[in-house]
Amino acid sequence: MSRRLSVAVERFPIAGAFTIARGSRTEAVVVTATIEDGDIRGRGECVPYARYGESVESVAAAIEAQAEWLANGGARSDLFERLGPGAARNAIDCALWDFEAKRQGRPAWAIAGLSEPGPVTTAYTLSLGAPEAMEESARNAAHRPLLKVKLGGEGDPERIAAVRRGAPDARLIVDANEAWRADTIEANLAACAAAGVALIEQPLPAGEDDLLADISRRIPICADESLHDRAGLDALAKRYDAINIKLDKAGGLTEAIRLAHEARARGFEIMVGCMVGTSLAMAPAMLIAHHAAYVDLDGPLLLAQDREPALRYEGSIVHPPLAELWG
């Protein structure tokens, strides 16, 4: 076996802008790893995230550093000894899953010993903005059954009330992206309860979320920035009711499968989430999405143009990938 690794940085424009508490952007910048041997080709896509100390350049370099190891037959089971959780390991891990599926002529879910994935309903994200703008966005998306609402701190009770007015029948998830504080969390929780919110994602900064163990709440709280892989599960006890599994945080599908299994054993509900990327990044996550209580794999829906071939979206229903895309 003499596998060749190539790394590409690709840019996909976002439809409009994507805004959260930490800033706004108009394009998705992804790093793609491709592993080839003859006619067999496996691909994996990742999204570097500055919040976790990553840049496009650092992630691309970390992937390229594994070229010799991969050429010499490096196994996916040994990847954990070479790279920690994060985007670089995700790209290589998913490329190796895709490569193995193509080599064996079997779907990745079967190789992993998982059940065959089916269509799932994904959340659709509403960017952070002024209440009136978010109400308009909610009205335009009110036909979707599940909306994920980006919040940002000051003014959030007005924002969530505006979204509920715009989409009176949709199920709502809110994501504060660590923007709430001890002196605002009670008012924000009350506003979410009044709006009938189903789940609140990462309200407080990671490392400053001990308060969650002591407050009473009627709405489940989901960890995102506070959890990357299995090593962080024990620290979440009494603070969180659910976890958001993102392959870019966990460092690939291999860890995501293990994380989902151990989290369920501890009684956590599962959300399967994503960064803003293309269908190639969403495809591996589909293998665990059909067992999740919440699915947030809407990255391609936020893009002005996806890659081809792409996942098939019918409204908010996303279908498992065809082999031509991944796995």
TrEMBL record:
Requisite cofactors: Mg(2+)
A Pfam family recorded for this sequence: MR_MLE_C
Key word Mitochondrion present: no
One MF term in the entry's GO annotations: metal ion binding
The protein's enzyme class: isomerase
Residue ranges of domain Mandelate racemase/muconate lactonizing enzyme C-terminal in the record: 131-222
Keywords of the record: Isomerase, Magnesium, Metal-binding
Positions bound to Mg(2+): D175, E201, D224
Transmembrane portions of the chain: none
Cofactor note: Binds 1 Mg(2+) ion per subunit.
Signal sequence, start to end: none
E.C. number: 5.1.1.-
Family annotation (PANTHER family): D-GALACTONATE DEHYDRATASE-RELATED, ENOLASE SUPERFAMILY MEMBER DDB_G0284701
Family statement drawn from the similarity comment of this UniProt entry: Belongs to the mandelate racemase/muconate lactonizing enzyme family.
Record-given protein name: Dipeptide epimerase
Source organism per UniProt: Methylorubrum rhodinum
Organism phylogeny: Bacteria, Pseudomonadati, Pseudomonadota, Alphaproteobacteria, Hyphomicrobiales
